């Protein structure tokens, strides 16, 4: 059988020059392409690109951690709660970096960011202020006004209308 006799996948009306190459499974059904990870907007040690954030992170890390956590958790818990938990862990155990590391991992998963320069927990253990500054800058780069919190950003995005979360469809008595 020559190469011109091979079965070609259907084009679905798209010209090959304009549509991305489809990947086909063994069943012949197109599968979506694997999404590649995006890159961080700034490096881990570029704290000087936002000096005010660097200063507040070094002197009172509970504030940026609370802001990062509230936005990463999509407003499920307030900035104040996250900041208070962070401070309690800092004062009582000195292991607050474990708590802040969780939000680096969540943010990386949400935005498909690479785990660099090393493991998330190691980054927070060795250089927590730099890691939190990078996370803060990344959220600002992605359009969040950190001072507004999650709901303030959603209200700004939706033109002043806060969209309610949908309840489950089952009836409750």
Main features:
disordered N terminus; Cell number regulator 10; two-stranded antiparallel sheet; mainly alpha; membrane; 6 helices; PLAC_motif_containing; 173 residues
Describe this structure in words.
This protein is mainly α and 173 residues long. The termini are far apart. It is built from 6 helices and 2 strands. Helix 1 crosses helix 5, helix 2 crosses helix 5 and helix 3 (79-92) crosses helix 4 (96-111).
Write the layout of secondary structure elements.
Elements: E1 23-24, E2 30-31, H1 51-59, H2 62-72, H3 79-92, H4 96-111, H5 120-141, H6 149-157
Antiparallel strand pairs: 1-2
Helix pairs in contact: 1-5, 2-3, 2-4, 2-5, 3-4, 4-5
Number of helices: 6
Q: Which series of helices and strands comes N to C?
A: EEHHHHHH
Low-confidence stretches: 2-25, 27-36
| Rounded Rg | 22 Å
As laid out across the biggest beta sheet, the strand order is 1-2
Mean pLDDT: 79
DSSP strand count: 2
Distance between the termini: 67 Å
Q: Estimate the global geometry from the Cα principal axes.
A: globular
> How is the main sheet built?
2 strands, antiparallel
Percent helix range: 40-55%
Give me the secondary-structure category.
Answer: mainly alpha
Estimate the strand proportion: under 5%
């Amino acid at each position: 059988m020559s190469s011109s006799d091979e079965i070609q996948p259907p084009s679905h009306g798209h010209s090959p020059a304009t549509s991305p190459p489809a990947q086909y499974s063994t069943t012949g059904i197109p599968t979506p392409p694997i999404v590649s990870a995006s890159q961080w907007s700034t490096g881990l040690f570029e704290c000087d690109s936002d000096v005010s954030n660097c200063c507040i992170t070094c002197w009172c890390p509970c504030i940026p951690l609370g802001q990062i956590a509230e936005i990463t958790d999509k407003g499920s818990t307030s900035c104040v709660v996250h900041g208070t938990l962070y401070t309690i862990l800092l004062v009582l155990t000195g292991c607050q970096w474990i708590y802040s590391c969780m939000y680096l991992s969540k943010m990386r998963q949400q935005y498909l960011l690479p785990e660099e320069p090393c493991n998330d927990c190691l980054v927070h253990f060795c250089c927590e202020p730099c890691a939190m500054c990078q996370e803060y800058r990344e959220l600002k780069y992605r359009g969040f006004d950190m001072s507004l919190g999650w709901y303030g950003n959603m209200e700004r995005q939706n033109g002043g209308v806060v969209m309610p979360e949908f309840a489950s469809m089952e009836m409750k008595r």
